Structure prediction request, 870 residues.
Amino acid sequence: MSTSYRHRPGRRLAAAAVSVLAAVTLAACGSGGGSGSDSAGAAPGGTPVSGGRLKIAFYGDLQGCIDPNQVYWIESRSIDRNIADSLTDQDPKTGKIVPWLATSWTVNPQATEFTFRLRDGVTFSDGTRLDAAAVKTALDGTHDLGARSILGVTYLAGYQATTVVDPTTVKVDFSQPNAGFLQATSTTTLAILSPATYRETPEARCAGKVIGSGAFTLDTYSAGRSVKITRRAGYAWPSSLVTNKGAAHLDGIDVSYIGEDSVRVGSLTNGTIDIAWPRQPISSADQQVITASGATIETRALPGIAGILTPNVTAGRPLADVAVRKAVQKALDLDSYAKTVFWDDYPVARSPLTSTTPYFTDESAKLTHDPAGAAKLLDGAGWTLGSDGYRHSGGRKLTLTYITPTPSPGDQLIQDQLKKVGIDLQIKVLTIAQLTPQANAGSYDLVATYLTRADPSVLGSAIDQAVSKQYTARYSQDPATAAQVSRLFVTGQSTVDPQRRASAYQDLQNYLVDNAVVFPLYDRVQTAGVSKKVHGFAWTSEAFLRANDIWLST
Amino acid sequence: MARYLAGRFAQALLVLWAAYTVVFVILHVLPSDPITLQLSAGGADISQLTPAALHDLKARYGLNDPVGVQYVHALWHALHGDFGMSLTQNVSVGSLIADKLPSTLELTAVSLPLMLVGGFGLAHLAVFVRWRPARTLLARLPAVGVSLPQFFVGLLLIQLFSFSLSWFPATGSSGWRSLVLPAVTMSLIGASMLAQLLTRSFDDTWREAYIVTAQAKGLSRGTVQRRHVLRNACLPALTLLGILLGYTVTNSVVVEAVFSRNGIGQLTQQAVLGQDVPVVQAIVLIAAAGFVLANLLVDLLYSLLDPRVAHAAGTG
Prediction:
């Protein structure tokens, strides 16, 4: 679903060339190996000082929208987290939902009715009070966005109405169970904006007409060029996860976009920017350059759908046979994938969900690399090894077509791993414009996807046929399997009892791996290079930036 | 002269129309549907829409009409400067272009003089220096410049002048400092090509009989070069310059990516990858207009510099 905007092809070589160059230059300059950071958590780097503007460079801004309710683009959501508050917050360590704009809440056992009690004394930056009516306007407004808010559509699935019970109490009703909604209220997508915002057109909101109640206010947003946000004086309602209970330490944050990895890294090491925030994990060569300059690498394993491949099981295609799918699973060496494509202790995929997703189940015992087992399964399925090293059945070669908009060294690695058991993987690199129609038509065998959200129901938006019309859902299961998968998703969504949700999602993950409905490939990690000047750096649960506690030393 | 100008102007319009039409045809025979693309850019899928919503959406972009009608509509609006709405960014193409064009024009305006100074300077040196090894080296240098990939030069300059020496910023588009490195990168290939061409025509012109006459009159090397050689040798260079100027958009794709400048080049890349048909169409038209304009200017300059052309135009 969101595989489309990763690194742009063709820059890889340039980036590699220059990171080598940069490494050499730096080594030659003999830059002192400043080690260790005092950035994360409570600052041992001293007492926070107020002032200064944080300069941060992201990879890009292809969506060109800053409205938290509409945007799915990760980088914009990181900015939004600091200008807009949500009803709840989520603890990045435990996944627990904690109070923010709502001080407490109740959910009925069917997970169709959510009642929130609101915090007192909160105002938006235009001076309007945050009350039950404002929350209703915000949720109705986000729901009205429809398909303009791709994330909102899933978060608010079955949304019926928000009712103002009294000025500080709102009730949200759903026509179907939506246990994931509580977590959704902690996201930027369901951030509560000022009622004035919802009188603007969606286009105007995207272009920057958004007013939140956050610790910063949006000054200027120039799509793809720059963003400036400024501290809001008198801010006093952070979530309980924030140490600094008052206004932010920073005067403001200046955001720029640098598409080229090597230039972004160089700008960090020479002090032009304070935080370099790429989309793909920072390569180990660049990590060395960054740490050599005294800056640190911050990482957070992203919650949500892991990097997965989904099959096309249409009758007549090789992957329609569950034995072949299981053989593919066994042929994949996830351990060496993590080590080769990323770095030595990069987390290995252990489930279709990443390890930081709530209710993640460790399936690694079933995901072991077993080429002999794969060969046996393929023999049993009638695919016999030919003299060309590939398997054949009835005169047909065992060829799988993999379509992707973004070539990655990982693709060649999988190709090689599958070749070892006699499967011919054809990699077809297409522009997103070519990929969409081809994938919708089902002319592929494997396609990759991932998505970030700290709730296991996110997997449904990619593979549950009852929820999603995406090709990753439509073609990855035959009707019987699809019914079973949907049933497991419904069970997980229809209870808020943590124990029952855990067991439902455990069953789901077991079922997906046992039947090779999806192929986990790699865990996902967000990395950021952070200058030694920066203290109090913090990730949100969904690995966005939280700037309340950040301060700059000189 | 007026008739000549009118003829050239009509020709320019014809070229623009042809460019517009060819692009329209090519983009419309591509096997994909703009609505699907637009939805997928927003992360949605066409099957999530009701048929009525789909119809509305198509009507909004005028996609329900037959292709012929779409073409006439698009052309009519384009003639009035209205290129429609971007399919992926939800804003008008006109405002997108207006937003990005100044930065690219700025870059071109700075890199053009650099190209001229670099090209003419190097060629001058190459024919003027008398020590043979230096002369050979200078004559070979442009070949190196032409073969260096732009992105590589750009990254090298960033490493040296931004990261090591901190003279110029590596990214952004604010202030003259941020223009220096991208403009140098952009002018390099053009300057090398100019130098290559000029060195050769200088060499050729120096062998002409009228140069011998000039020298026999007792003129210095410098005066001969300035008065006689340059004027005759620069005519082919002028033609090349017109072509180089026309390549502005193409050049800016790489340079703007390397230096994170938000201009027409970046827009082109995004629009092409996302098959944002109206945007691509507008950019092609701008590029074509640039080409036509540059060549028109060159032709007019030709008639000023070369009396023979002016004479032919006057009688023809």
Notes: Residues 2 and 450 of chain A are 6 Å apart (CA to CA).
